[in-house]
Amino acid sequence: MSAFTSPSQIRAQFSRAMSDMYRAEVPQYGTLMTLVSDVNADVLAGIGAAAAGAAGQEARIEVERHGAIRVGTPAELATIRRLFAVMGMFPVGYYDLSVAGVPVHSTAFRPKDVAGLAENPFRVFTSLLRLDLIQDAALRDAAAGVLATRSIFTPGCLALIERAEQQGGLDDADAAQFVAEALETFRWHGRATVDAELYWKLRKTHPLIADIVCFPGPHINHLTPRTLDIDVVQALMPERGIQPKAVVEGPPTRQCPILLRQTSFLALSEPVTFRDGGEAGTHTARFGEIEQRGVALTPKGRQRYDALLNEVRQIITPAGDGSNAAAYRQTLESVFRAFPDDHDQMRREGLAYYRYKVGNTAADGADVEALIAAGALVAEPITYEDFLPVSAAGIFQSNLGDENRDALEASPNRVAFEAALGAAVSDELALYAAEQDASLKAALKALGVG
């Protein structure tokens, strides 16, 4: 038997295929890709990779993508977990989006190891519909009935998942076929599986419910390239014929970026036809997104971030039409002045995670702070690889239309999500802490003081 294709190689092949498919389906995504590439090149040419920080020195920046899908049933979620495992992607983090009025809870499938992230950091934010949050019992039953009749995976895809599990991997030919088969799950279908009446009832309850329930599969709803300067991309989108959402989600502009900042172009209104031949309508769900990633925060840092963001939201909430965008940005920047904007201070205060490596001077003693001051030990920010529930919900809400929807109360249920998934989700903060601790131990050992 020929050697197996590595999961990272399969992941890279799938990421490229997904990007090509989405570019063909949503031409503005191609325009967005070109804009992000241009901005990244300008940043690196203007200030150099070193000045751009860790992100500027990551070879992965040009291939980095994340996508998002929404599935309808526990069975679909469990099979998606198995599909992503073939590509070396595993569930990390639990996100309750009901806190922001979106009836799903989610995880991110991604590589967990440093080597896998360096080889290809493709990740997919995956949400499961919370049918229990649909208040109308008859409508809830109707949605469940529709979901029970569909199969979102091709027979070939299911067979190759099983083969990979049984033999421990896929050879090159099977890997290529797996990518082709898996891609079908994420493809757009303009024909709804329901009649027009049910579609509009579900859409009135919440547009996202209609998006999940009423189509043959969980079409990819956005792909996201990574930029080195999201503010410049946001400003330049209109010049490229792209309408951006009103505000950038996440923390404000900083010298030392933290966590994740996201923006997007507004979702397309796409024609749909209905099962009963009812009057054709339009569906709004698919869009293009851009992200800028910063350093991962510790539990202490995240607690401070969440408190500051909550303080901002108590003062002002960004309006969907952008009417208070400038005031929101000013408030965000003002409130977040309380969060240190210096890597050394964040590290010393235990607010963020850092990777340690040997510097260019000899060690003198074993004190970590003294070694850093002397240049014998170097601390580099660990990139945040995950997501923020308020930001994710903000992106979703801005791309689901403006119609009224039922109010939702926050109701996290990690136990139910993991039961549906068929596995526990990894704690993202524990992964960062382990990477930091392992790097410090290895660097001190290399210096002869560990």
UniProtKB/TrEMBL annotation:
Transmembrane annotation, as ranges: none
Keywords linked to the UniProt accession: Dioxygenase, Iron, Oxidoreductase
Superkingdom of origin organism: Bacteria
InterPro entries: HGLS, YdcJ_bac-like
EC code(s) of this entry: 1.13.11.93
Gene3D superfamilies: Uncharacterised protein PF07063, DUF1338
GO molecular function (one): dioxygenase activity
Cofactor(s) for this UniProt protein: Fe(2+)
Similarity field: Belongs to the 2-oxoadipate dioxygenase/decarboxylase family.
Protein name: 2-oxoadipate dioxygenase/decarboxylase
